[in-house]
């Protein structure tokens, strides 16, 4: 398990509440996020209507459903399943660093949604950078490769006393 990174956790909280247009509540990172309410509100801000029902209070089971609704919403939004934390990672504090990584992944995916104009989280994703080479450029490159490969011409392994050398049999 990766160690916790308090700066990243604070950056995630700042991002979530900037997106929501709310003040960051006081308290521990995992306590603020534990019941999934803020996460569901975040999902609805990014993709309106993506979480139909948010349990504002209730049993642990009902509050865990918030986290599961958030997970389903962000998966649909485009976060790869393998990057989404497990419910117990947050609710039972089993792997808080994974929660942080998942939220960074969500922040990254917002960049693929042109309709989202809010704050970003983490590094900017690279744009597709297609390159087109002329025949001449490709041929010139082939020549370079041949020169590099031919650099060892004349070198051989004959006389090398390794495996397969029949003199030792």
From TrEMBL:
Keyword list, A-Z: Actin-binding, Calmodulin-binding, Repeat
Q: Name one Pfam family in it.
A: CH
Q: Which residues form the Calponin-homology (CH) domain?
A: 6-110
Q: Cite the InterPro entries for this sequence.
A: Calponin-like (IPR050606), Calponin/LIMCH1 (IPR001997), Calponin_repeat (IPR000557), CH_dom (IPR001715), CH_dom_sf (IPR036872), SM22_calponin (IPR003096)
Q: SMART domains this protein is in?
A: CH
Signal peptide: which range, if any?
none
Give GO terms: molecular function aspect only. Answer: actin filament binding; calmodulin binding
What GO cellular component entries does it have?
A: actin cytoskeleton
Q: Which GO terms describe its biological process?
A: actin filament organization; actomyosin structure organization
**Functional note:** Thin filament-associated protein that is implicated in the regulation and modulation of smooth muscle contraction. It is capable of binding to actin, calmodulin and tropomyosin. The interaction of calponin with actin inhibits the actomyosin Mg-ATPase activity.
The similarity comment for this entry is: Belongs to the calponin family.
Question: Can you say what this protein is called?
Answer: Calponin-homology (CH) domain-containing protein
Species of provenance: Drosophila willistoni (Fruit fly)
Gene for this chain:
Dwil\GK22375
